[in-house]
Amino acid sequence: MKSFRRHSATVNAGSMADIAFLLLIFFLVTTTISADKGILRQLPTDCPPGSHCGDNVAERNLLRISLNRNQEIFIEDEVVKLEEVEQIVKAFVDNNGKANCDYCAGEQIPESSDHPREAVISLSHDAQTKYQLFISVQDEITKAYYDLREHYIKLKFNKALNHVNNEELRIVKKAYPFIVSAVMVKRD
């Protein structure tokens, strides 16, 4: 009598690795990877030990912007809309309170900054402030400085912003330095 041996059925898997490799390459090529958003800022250098690096800022040269957990924007304890931030920052920085700035176009309000070089923007936010609001306010502050610098370039060099050289750009940044202090405030 013959005995029947059952052979297990096999699947030819030789080309499975090729198919998996092709699928992997297909998905790598067709997938878009979103870039992370962030803020391009240069951090200050460390303070050398034994020296005092803190500057005392006059109250009138400090513009306080705060964001609360309810996603509201306060400038000097008044609620403002996001669209108003740029104009308020521009008016504050370009105020010319001491009337010694020959390129400033401000209204010389006594409660506002003395000079663009002395103007400091203090941005504080609650721990529960949404990241998008924080970035949007930072963008509005940056736009204000961009506009002020662009106006200065036209006034001083009679050029467009994208046509200045490195030395001219250094002069512009010295005329309108971007001084922003950001801090997170934890409230219970």
Structure description:
This protein is an alpha/beta fold and 188 residues long. The protein has a domain at 59-185. The chain is built from 4 helices and 5 strands. Strands 3-2-1-4-5 form a 5-stranded mixed β-sheet, with helices on one face. The protein starts with 15 loop residues before the first helix and ends with a strand. InterPro entries: ExbD (IPR003400). It is found in: Cell membrane. Belongs to the ExbD/TolR family.
Summarize the structure.
The protein is of the alpha/beta class and 188 residues long.
Structural class of the secondary elements? alpha/beta
Question: How many strands appear in the DSSP assignment?
Answer: 5
User: Helical region count?
Assistant: 4
Radius of gyration: 29 Å
**Mean pLDDT, nearest integer?**
85
Overall helicity: 25-40%
Shape: elongated
Order of helices and strands: HEEEHEHHE
The proportion of strand residues reads 5-15%
**Largest sheet descriptor:** 5 strands, mixed
Output the strand order for the largest sheet: 3-2-1-4-5
Span between termini: 88 Å
> Which blocks of ≥5 consecutive residues have pLDDT under 50?
none
Keywords: Cell membrane, Membrane, Protein transport, Transmembrane, Transmembrane helix, Transport
GO molecular function, one term: transmembrane transporter activity
GO cellular component, one term: plasma membrane
Subcellular location: Cell membrane
